[in-house]
């Protein structure tokens, strides 16, 4: 019984480590801001350029 609990604990620890790694291992300055003309952005999400 103890071996099953140890295995479950280790699997949970690995899961927490994977989630932590994917959340906090990004770029040091955050994501790069490409502005309004980022490729793949939907046209209706871009602000219109009317004067």
From TrEMBL:
Source organism per UniProt: Variovorax robiniae
Protein name per its UniProtKB record: CcoQ/FixQ family Cbb3-type cytochrome c oxidase assembly chaperone
Highest taxon, organism lineage: Bacteria
Keywords: Membrane, Transmembrane, Transmembrane helix
Region (Disordered): 30-51
Transmembrane spans: 6-24
């Amino acid at each position: 019984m103890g071996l099953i609990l140890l295995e479950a604990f280790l699997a949970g620890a690995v899961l927490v480590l994977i989630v932590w790694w994917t959340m906090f291992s990004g770029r040091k300055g955050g994501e790069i801001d490409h502005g309004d003309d980022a490729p793949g952005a939907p046209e209706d999400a871009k602000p219109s350029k009317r004067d």
